[in-house]
Design brief:
With 97 residues, the chain is α+β, with helices and mostly antiparallel strands. The chain is built from two helices and two strands. The chain has a two-stranded antiparallel sheet with strand order 1-2. Helix 1 runs parallel beside helix 2. The chain is globular. The mean pLDDT is 81.
Length: 97
C-alpha cells in the first residue's frame, strides 16, 4: 500500500443498495493498475501451487464497483476496468491450469 507503483493498491468505493437503504462504503483493489494486476496474478499462482493446481474458482464480488464519478481514481475508466477484468480471467486461467 505504500509503494507508489501500486497507487495505494486500493480505492474507496460505495454501495448503494437501493432507495431508502443505507449506503455502504468500502474498498476495491485497483485492478486497472498493471502493477496491482501483476501482484494479483502472483497471488493466484501461489494459491494454485498450494492447492496442487486445483483452484477451480475464486469469488470476488468487486467486479461490479461504484466509484465517486466526480473524483475517479488515477487511471480508471469503465473501459479500462472491464479490459483489466478480462485480462485477469485470461491470466488466471493460464496461471492456474
Amino acid at each position: 500500500m505504500n509503494d507508489p507503483v501500486y497507487n495505494g493498491g486500493q480505492s474507496p468505493q460505495f454501495d448503494n443498495p437501493g432507495e431508502g437503504d443505507i449506503v455502504g462504503s468500502g474498498w476495491v483493489a485497483r485492478q486497472w493498475d498493471p502493477a496491482v494486476r501483476h501482484r494479483y496474478k502472483a497471488l493466484l499462482a501461489v494459491l494454485a501451487k498450494r492447492f496442487d493446481g486445483q483452484v477451480y474458482g475464486i469469488n470476488l464480488p468487486e467486479t461490479a464497483i461504484d466509484l465517486d464519478e466526480k473524483a475517479q481514481p488515477k487511471g480508471f475508466s469503465c473501459d479500462n476496468y472491464f479490459a483489466s477484468e478480462i485480462t485477469n480471467i485470461t491470466l488466471c486461467t493460464k496461471s492456474v491450469y
